[in-house]
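step 3/5: co-fold with benzoic acid
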Amino acid sequence: MSIHIGDHVPNFDIETTKGHIKFHDWIGDSWVFFFSHPADFTPVCTTEMGRTAELADEFAKRNTKPLGLSTDTVSQHLKWIDDVNDTQNTTLEFPIIADPLGKIAKLYDMIHPGEDTTEAVRSVFIIDPKQKLRLTMTYPMNVGRNFDEILRVIDALQLADAKKIATPADWVPGDKVIIPPSISNEEAKDIFPQGWEELRPYLRKVKLS
Ligand code: BEZ
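step 4/5: write tokens
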């Protein structure tokens, strides 16, 4: 099944390293960083799991819960977490889904047969508290994800929701943002009383205070 930005994400019941979860209930009022891995005890995945654990406070600041998935069992995951903690010098606390049969991997279209017929590729799903898919990224098995980018896109999505703005190329927090074309200059005067720079009528940049 393919799943698209804007979709209400599919629900599932599954075992994880932190017990059984019903996904929609588990989301609660948080954002979710749901990310898949091909297999336990593999080098790239080990560094990604360690990096996610290391960023626990950064995810918490953004009201975002990480949820991993790998196509192995809970007991394999638990042994692997010991290795992750040893080699990456972390304490991994977030749940990892055990998906040895690829049930959730298939549901979320994480199996890309041209890459591997049974193991998940490196998918990322950023999901909001309304259980709506807000962003996806897909990486091949041999390229580790950029976690600064993952935090950056969560910041961009949350700011866009809060301030009715869009973010330009390479935006990082503190940079000017874009007034979307759906907001007229009349409306913009109320929302952005500080004024804005108009490079073209469709390209207006504003500094948020
Ligand atoms: C890795 O995590 O290092 C990995 C996993 C599957 C295929 C290639 C690399």
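step 5/5: annotate
Strands lie at 13-16, 19-22, 31-37, 64-70, 96-98, 122-127, 133-139, 177-179, 197-200, 203-206.
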